[in-house]
Amino acid sequence: MTAAASVLLVSDHVEGAVHVLSVPDGTLIGRLTGRHLSEHAGFLALPGGRVACVDDRRGELLVLDPFGDDLVALTVPVAVPGEHLACDPAGRRLAVTTGLGDNTEPWSDLLTVVDLATGEAARVRTRIGEPGVTVLGGGDPLVVLRHREPGALAVHRFADLLAAPPGCPVATPHALLPLPDDGHGDAQDPGAGRVFAATGTGVHTARREGDALVAGPVIPWESPARGWYLRLDTRGRALWTTLRGGPADPLRWPEWTNQAWRHDLGTGHTLRTELGPGLVFRLALSRNHTAFSRVHPDGDELVLLGADDSLRRVPLPAMDGAPRRGGTPWEGVQRRAVAASRGADWVAVTRGGHGEVHLLDAETGGEVSRPRLETPLHHGGHVMLLSRNDGAEGDTVGR
Question: Which domain of life is it from (predicted)?
Answer without folding.
Answer: Bacteria
